[in-house]
Structures are given as structure tokens and as C-alpha cells.
Amino acid sequence: MNNSIFKFIASLVLLTSLQLLSCSKVELDYTPARFDVAQAVWFEGEETLFLFWNVGSPLGLRQESVVEVSWTSDDGKVDWIAPQSLAQVHLHETVQCGAGRLCGSASPKLAREPRSAQIRVRYHRDGQVALTIVPETYVIRKGNAFQNRSFIVYGVFDQSNTLIQWRGRHVFPALRNEDATALGLRRRFEVSGQTVGDIKNLSPANPYHYGSEALCPQDFASAQLDALVQTFERAVFNKTALLPSVAARDSVCAIAKVKDATGEFSTTAWARKNAETRSAFETLRSPVKTTTPIGFLLLPCRRTISLSHLEMQKQRLLLNNPTEICTDDFVQSNFKDQLVGQLQQRISDVRAAGNDMTLYVAVHHDDKTGGLVRKLEDALAAVLPDERSRVTPRVSGAFVFDSLQHIVLDPRIKNLVLWCPAAWLDVSVDPLSSPDESQRACPVLPDIPPLNVGPVRFSSLPILPSRQSWDDFVSRFSAANGGRMTSLDALAPQRTAVSTDLPLGDYGWVTFFNNERVSANATEAFSYCNIDSNDASRIYFRSSAAPDKPLPLSNLPSVHATAALPSYELGLAWDFPFLLRLAYESFVAGSANAVVASVPFGISFSQQQSYGSAGWTQQEFKVAGSLLQCTRFCSHPYFDEKGIYNVRGSWRDNLMVSCYRPFFPRPSDGGFPVDP
Amino acid sequence: MTLDWLAKLTLLCLVVSSAAHAASEDAWVPFSQLIERTVGTAGKSVRFDWRRKSQLFFLDYGQPVEYNNFETERFGASLFLPSSNWSFGFGLAKTFVSSTPSSRAISLMPYQQLGRPERWEILAGAFFPVAEGVTTLRLPILPAAQMVFSLAADFRYLIYPTLYSGSDLPGGLKSLLKIRLNSDELARLGDIALPGMRIDSGKVNVLTGVTLHLYTAGGFIVNSKAMIALGLLGSEMPRHADFSFGIGYAQ
């Protein structure tokens, strides 16, 4: 019994195995053809029927497949015939459109309008099975040359604006210029009788100006260029360049001849020069120098608050023999005036050295009412705004190192004073409003957050701490681990006698340093591009029409296009008058709690920090590349980065806020330029 | 006399040991089957010991039955190195492909059928004898022969010379390392493909099947093969049969 079951299973396995090895027949793949292009275009004026086709199939047509055409007109019916067998008006090259595809074009002569046309592909030249379709059929009546002919001629200039490339362009209702080329159509054209002058009566409907007149204008002079240029390709360069004596003329007119079924057609073709451009302004220079520090120390003279903290404040500002101002009587009404007087006295003394200055003010106090710092703010407000707009030597601003956290609210000085430690993390400050420089400059948080690992504690102190932070730190660790300022300097731009500051809303100021100007006449135009320069966004301009209203440089092209002015002054925008650079040593301080004692230790790190406007690290601001100035032929078409001739656009109108990076035609480019 | 006695004793031992072994598998095995099985398992060449030869040369004519409408024939030569178990070898074949009335009819219509154009094939193969013995032929003038029935496997790499004409050495080697034709290669092969043929993109043909070798005493071999192409390794061709017949010589 078991043996029988085993044999039965073995038989099943054997049969299944044989089934797996069974063979099957190869099926037939249905691969119907499909026309991607099938067009018939008849030009009445040329008496020519243009035929275009591009056909393929999912698995590809074979070499044995053939395309045939047929049409009917009032002259009779042309039965199915291979287009290659027809007498062609134009040259048609055999072209490849990809594996398994058939494509091409034909141009039989046809004097009368086609009433019907058909195109088919026979799958094999020996078979009768075919896909037949009615192509898109267009009829173009007689009319003007630029709209009613299948080919127009125009010229473009190379980069030097002296060498002309004459180009032909296929014009079909539903087929692009380059597609007609790709389908094998080649047109011979020739250009002769080149003359030079200034073009007139441009029509928007005829941007190439082709055939605008039968002959070139009589006031045009001989251009002394090639007597005859001709090609079967789509473009050909003159061999001779224009003479410098006609550099001011904007166009060249020539007689272009093209062939059609009726013979030769000749009319005028035009080449318009490219816009001539240069950088409107190369570099905005603003010498930046290290300012001379003027140190002040405000402290109570009749009592001591914290010697340790006082020494730390003096060390942080590197105050060497500062002017000490006693604050014991700060509540008196004339305290502010005394303060102003002492500030001005020192400033006046140092100004004689001829260098810009920055005030370094250490405020050692414990006045939590805010009265003392308000009077200091008032005193600074009485001194700094006037100083800011003075000629070098002048005071660029102030750096105040307070004992308590503070926020500068006085609008007169909040863009002129760095006040540390800042209190912008205070909840009373609107968290949605961005803090200005004086507030965001000096964070009160330590560089490294506190860390406890068992009995060992690590912490660090900001280099500009409040007294409370300082005292807390020293009680846990030691004053020696609180850090040390190693250098401190402020950089500020040098102003000239003609420097002018204009407010720039909430941001800051624009300074016009030294009469940096762009001159232009009414026919000229500008183009703004900020790709090549990171500085462009900081450059502003003003015009004589609105001398108190600085505008971004990007607005200059449109301002000049609207109301052309003879010059525009360039200035630099800034949000803080100086850059404070700090170099210091900070410590990661640790303390290990033993049974009876705490042992402090520290690991030092050298660090650098900059507060204020980072822009004052550079002395030159690149304008070149950001602002182009067109000096001639500004209303002419232009080439783009791809080398495409934007014939309907004009440099003046289209490139106000677009980058102009043209790719000009070159004689080495060959006879088929990019011309979609 | 002594030798005869010794031979009988040896045979008896074999029979008894086989019977004992068989007894553990089947309850009862006829003595005649036991004798046949013992002789067959020994696998010793009786008429011609082809395993002692160093090479086996074959010339084959084959006909892959691809189940499409194209006619395919193959002529090949191969060299095998015999051994007691698996014998390995390699060879070269030229495969001719031609149209038929049916394939020509297909080409006149919007249809195509999978196929492979004319080509060369590099062969790597192996066979493993599973049955063998002396056989006598019906024609009395022919001598008895050693018949070997084997399981076989072939690995054939298809070479289309058109693809390598004009290509540089690195490009050719790179192409050789691929087991499928890319679209560019398929397009180039389109020029040599027969009308109505859609070219199989596979460049490798894996086959398995059986071979039958008849060895004469003089070392001449009659060879026949019946294989199944498995359609593996990128080939789009469905499984199909591949028969071949040839002659050879053992040296």
C-alpha cells in the first residue's frame, strides 16, 4: 500500500517536472505605426507643397518600410509615390530620427491649391498593408514676405559688433524652425549688396524687418563687406568685418535671395547690432580702519561694590588709565551734563590724533532703578548722533559694559551703542521683534551649558558677564577661571568731507562716502543682476530728483527708464557703525567636591568673537557685474545665455532686473545656430 | 581454474552484499534484477573505455527549435575532457538563421516575432553518464559499441560580430561582459535582423538535457543531443528544444 502511494507521488513529481520543461511557441508582437508628424503646407506665392513626416512604431519600423504620399489638386491627382521620387524644389537630406523611425520632408512643385493630401507608411515595400492618414494641411496665401513665405533671412552680429552672421529661418504654421531642419529640409539663400545705416520704421509685426522694403534705403552707405555670401545651411558668416568708421550706425541692410518653384525671390534682410554694454561702476571703496579707543569707567567713588567684579570689567575692556567718573551723585540733575562734558573733553583731546574713535565705557554700579544707565544713555545720545555724521576723525559709536543686564530703548543711540550684557532674552521684550545690534550682541548665556558628572561640576562664563553671573561663578569656581580678554578693537569706515548719511527705515543708514556716481544720458539703459556680487544688496543709490530717498541698486534701471537723470550717487547701507572684534580666553571651569573641600580647576580655550556690522571687515564692495550700463543700441534685440536671439525683446525693456550673460554667435559654431 | 573460481567467488560476494542492501529497502528483489543492478552500478566500460582517453572531439549539426517562424541551423565543434564523473568541455558554433514563407508574410504586416539573428556561439558544457553498456547494432557488419547515456548542460554565449566591428578594445570587452543587449546594440543589429524579426536581447543561452554517445572500438563516436533551452539570464525566448547530431573521435 505504502509502495503504491510512493509510486503515485513520484509519478506526479515526474509529470510536474516535465510540465516545467515544456516548451511554448513564440507569439507575434503587434506593432502598429504611428505618425508623430504628418504635415502638408502649401505656399501659394511659392507654388510649393511642403510635406513633413515622422513615423514610428512601438517595436520600430524596419528598413523595408516605406513612406508614400498622395494628393489631389485642380491639376489632377498624384497617386501614391515615394517622396524621394518626386522632383523637389528644395534640397532634402536623408535624416535619421532614431532607431526604427522614418522621417523626412519633400517639396514638390504644386501650382494650384491641394484639395486633399494623404501620407501612408507601408510596413514592407513588398506588402500592401499600410497605415494611411490625412496630414495636417495648411494653405498660406500670397502676401507680405515676412508672414506669407516659408523662409526668411536676417542677420545678427558677433560679440565685436562688426562681423555679421546671416541666418535663414523656416516659417511654417505648425512646425518649428529647427524641426524643419531636423526633417531634412535645406534652403539655399544668398546675401549681397550690404549697406549700413540707421534702421527706421520698425514694425512689431515684423521683428526681423525681413522684406520691409524691396530695396535698402538710399541713405544707407556701402558697408564694404562681402559682395556675396551663400549657403545651404541655416547660417553663414561674412568674412569681412565692419569698419570702425560705421561703428555708430545701428544696422546693416542687404538683399537676400531665396529660391522657390517660381524662380528666385529677393527682398531686404536686416542685421541689427547688439547692445553695447559696460559695467556702470566697478568698485565702491570705503577704507576701514581700527579706531582709537577712549576708555571711561563709571563707578561709585565713596564705596566699594565688588573689587573682583570691577577688576574684571576693567580687564574685559582692556582699560588702561581710563577716565574715571564718580557716580555717587548721579541722581543730581546736572549729572548728565557733567557726563557729556567729560565725554566731549576726552573726545576733543583724542581727535587731534586724526583717527576715528570708539568709546569703551565700563559701568560699575548696583543701581537697579535704572536711573544711572538712563542718564548714561542720555549723555551718549547727546554726543554720538552728531559724531556719527562728522568727517573723520569722529566717534563711530560706543561699547558699554554694564554691571547689570540692560536693553537700549533710546532710538537715538540704539544703532550706535553696543550694550553688554544684553537683556534681549528678557521676557518683557517682544519675542517676535528682531533685536537690534546693541541687544543681540552680548548674550548672557554661557558658551557651554553647566554639566554635572557625579561629584565633578563643569561650567563656563560668558566673557562679558553680569555681576550676578560673575559672583555666582567665582563663588563656585574661582576668578582665575572666569576668562581673560586678550585683544579688543573696533573697525569703522573712514568718512570724507562730502560723506552723507541717510536713514534707511528701521534697518540703519546709507552712507554716500565720496561722491561715487554713475553717469548716463537719456538714451542709455541699465540692467541689474546680483548673481556675481554678494555686495550688491548693500548698495543703494540716490538721484538729484530725490536726494533724501535712497533706493536699492536694483531699482536704478527702472528709475532711469522712467525719468532719465544725468547721474546717480551710490552709497553703502549699514546697520551698525562699527565692528567690534574680541579675542579672549575662556575656561571650562570644574570643581570636584571632596569630603571636606572643593577643588577648582579650569581648561582654557582661545576664542574670537565679532559684534556689530560684519560688513566692515571689507574695504571694497563690488558693483561690477551687478549693474550693467548700455551705452548704444539699447533698444535692439539681445542674445541670452543659450545663444538664442530674442528678436522681440529689447535690452532696455527686458533686462532691467535680469542678468545679461549673452552667448554670441561665433564663426566656429557651424551653420545651424540655436534658433527655435 | 583458480582464477575462474576467484571470479565466481567475487561475483557471489557482490550479489550477496547487494541482496543484503536491497533487503533493507525492499522486501523482495528478483535475483535477475539484482544481477543487472550490480553490473550497471559498476559502471565499467566494457567495449571501449572512453574514460581513459584524454580528449573527445565532436562535430555537430544542430537545429534549435525556437518555435518561431525563422529557420535556424547550427554547426559546431567542441572538445571535452573525459573523467569518471562529470566531463567538461568547450566549443564554438556558427548559427545560421533564414527567413521562411511564414516569417516573410509576417514582415509584410505590422507584426514582429522574437528571434535571434545569425551569430557565433561560444559553448561551455558538461555531461554526466547515468547509463552505459555494450550495445549491438542491427547491421551485422557494424561492430558492437559502447553506449553512454548522460545528463548534460550547455552554457552558450552568443556573439554578434556586427556589434564589435569598429568598436575599440575596452568598449568591446565591456560589451562582452554584459549578458543583455542594450538599446543601441539592438538598433545596430536591426540591420542584420531578418524581416519581421524582433531581436531577443539575451546574449546567453542556458540548456539542459541528455546526450547519447556510441563509442566504437576504434575511438569513433556517434553523438546525439536533446536539450531544452531554459530561457534564463535575460533571454526573452520561451523554452524551446534543441536537437543536434554529430560524430566525434576519442583520443
Give me some keywords for this one.
A: 676 residues; mainly beta; eight-stranded mixed sheet; six-stranded antiparallel sheet; elongated; B: 251 residues; two-stranded parallel sheet; 10 strands
What do you see in this structure?
The complex is a heterodimer of chains A (676) and B (251). In chain A, the strands form ten sheets. In chain A, strands 11, 12, 14, 15, 16, 17, 18 and 19 form an eight-stranded mixed beta sheet that branches. In chain A, helix 5 (335-351) packs parallel to helix 6 (371-388). Chain A has 676 residues and is mainly beta. Chain B is α+β, with helices and mostly antiparallel strands and 251 residues long. In chain B, the strands form two sheets. Chain B has an eight-stranded antiparallel beta barrel with strand order 1-2-3-5-6-8-9-10. Chain B has a two-stranded parallel sheet with strand order 4-7. In chain B, strand 8 and strand 9 form a beta hairpin. In chain B, helix 1 (2-25) packs across helix 2 (31-42). The longest helix of chain B has 24 residues, at 2-25. The two termini of chain B are 37 Å apart. Mean pLDDT of chain B is 82; it is low at 1-7 and 13-20. At the A-B interface, strand 1 of A face strand 4 and helix 5 of B. Strand 1 of chain A pairs antiparallel with strand 4 of chain B.
Strand order of the largest sheet of chain B: 1-2-3-5-6-8-9-10
Oligomeric status:
heterodimer
- Rounded mean pLDDT of chain B is 82
Low-confidence parts of chain B: 1-7, 13-20
Query: Which regions of chain A contain 5 or more consecutive residues with pLDDT less than 50?
Result: 425-439
Of all protein chain pairs, which has the greatest interface, and how many residues does each chain bring to it?
A-B, 28 and 29 residues
In short:
The complex is a heterodimer of chains A (676) and B (251). With 676 residues, chain A is mainly beta. In chain A, the strands form ten sheets. In chain A, strands 11, 12, 14, 15, 16, 17, 18 and 19 form an eight-stranded mixed sheet that branches. In chain A, strands 22, 28, 29, 30, 38 and 39 form a six-stranded antiparallel sheet that branches. In chain A, strands 31, 32, 33, 35, 36 and 37 form a six-stranded antiparallel sheet that branches.
